[in-house]
Amino acid sequence: MAIWLTKDSKVIVQGMTGSEGSKHTRRMLAAGTHIVGGVNPRKAGTEVEFDGTSVPVFGSVADAMAKTGADVTVIFVPPAFTKDAVLEAIDAGIGLAVVITEGVPVHDTAVFWAHAVATGNKTRIVGPNCPGIASPGASNAGIIPADIAGSGRIGLVSKSGTLTYQMMYELRDIGFSTAVGIGGDPIIGTTHIDALAAFQEDPETEAIVMIGEIGGDAEERAAEYIKAHVTKPVVGYIAGFTAPPGKTMGHAGAIISGSSGTAEAKKVALEAAGVKVGKTPSETARLMREIMG
């Protein structure tokens, strides 16, 4: 079992014919992802070969969905065109849009996020600026390496791409139902809380790892949600314990104001909700091992 992305997911790639899109389409296909098409209005009607697999190119998301039954899109288009690509996916009514692109203007993200809400939240947006979703052994939508962990009983939700990979590697012998990289921008589509709710409902996810980072209050809100709604064990890690106060670190969302948003404040909030919080990724993995026996 997995959340949002399963072995039956039919995936299209917006920007498949570009350099990043084609590179990662090849990797997703090798991971067993059921990729049914690409989208590029200028190359509609052509096909692209990936190691013996021929993938058709469509002129629009709506056309690709009508011809293939696609229910997931992975978006690899430059930042300037990302807003239009996501709006197109939402208007076509696709169920899941995974936005990999980094450097999308926050205003553009606000526009497509608001459009998704206004049209009834039919499209779940993951990202932008994220590594995507991997359900090991079933499907892989994005840039998470497919060979670092197998399928298993842990659910993972993370703001950080590289820490997603590290945690999957550290716990590779136990394995994952689904790993979701939600991205670290100030506005994102899918939140920690969305993933926690889905993992709580998934019968084959037994425990959850949540990776946050300094800045904002997403982790504090997730702690409140865990306290009220999550019965499965949760282990957490907050990136940025050693960050100097007042500095903006890495991700655009990692801005601290006063004591709010610090790693320590987030740790306190999570521990108050019963979450075990590691000081390092390796310690966090060890805490999860203790839970999984």
TrEMBL record:
Q: Which residues form the CoA-binding domain?
A: 4-104
- Give the EC number(s) listed in the UniProt record: 6.2.1.5
A GO molecular function annotation here is:
nucleotide binding
Summary of the function given for this chain in its UniProt record: Succinyl-CoA synthetase functions in the citric acid cycle (TCA), coupling the hydrolysis of succinyl-CoA to the synthesis of either ATP or GTP and thus represents the only step of substrate-level phosphorylation in the TCA. The alpha subunit of the enzyme binds the substrates coenzyme A and phosphate, while succinate binding and nucleotide specificity is provided by the beta subunit.
**What is this protein's gene name?**
sucD
Q: What is one term from the GO cellular component aspect held by the record?
A: succinate-CoA ligase complex (ADP-forming)
Annotated residues for binding of CoA:
17-20, 43, 100-102
Residues that coordinate or bind substrate: 165
Q: Which PANTHER family does the record cross-reference, listed alphabetically?
A: SUCCINATE--COA LIGASE [ADP_GDP-FORMING] SUBUNIT ALPHA, MITOCHONDRIAL (PTHR11117:SF2), SUCCINYL-COA LIGASE SUBUNIT ALPHA (PTHR11117)
Q: Which reaction does it catalyse?
A: GTP + succinate + CoA = succinyl-CoA + GDP + phosphate; succinate + ATP + CoA = succinyl-CoA + ADP + phosphate
Where along the chain is the active site annotated? Answer: 251
Q: Which domain of life is it from?
A: Bacteria
HAMAP family, from UniProt?
Answer: Succ_CoA_alpha
According to its UniProt record, this protein's enzyme class is: ligase
InterPro entries this protein is in?
Cit_synth/succinyl-CoA_lig_AS, Citrt_syn/SCS-alpha_CS, CoA-bd, CoA_lig_alpha, NAD(P)-bd_dom_sf, SUCC_ACL_C, Succinyl-CoA_synth-like
Q: What is this protein called?
A: Succinate--CoA ligase [ADP-forming] subunit alpha
Oligomeric and partner information? Heterotetramer of two alpha and two beta subunits.
**PROSITE patterns membership:** SUCCINYL_COA_LIG_1, SUCCINYL_COA_LIG_2
Which family does the record claim for this protein?
Belongs to the succinate/malate CoA ligase alpha subunit family.
SMART domains found in the cross-reference section: CoA_binding (SM00881)
**Which GO biological process categories is it annotated with?**
tricarboxylic acid cycle
Q: In which pathway does it act?
A: Carbohydrate metabolism; tricarboxylic acid cycle; succinate from succinyl-CoA (ligase route): step 1/1
Key words of the record:
Ligase, Nucleotide-binding, Tricarboxylic acid cycle
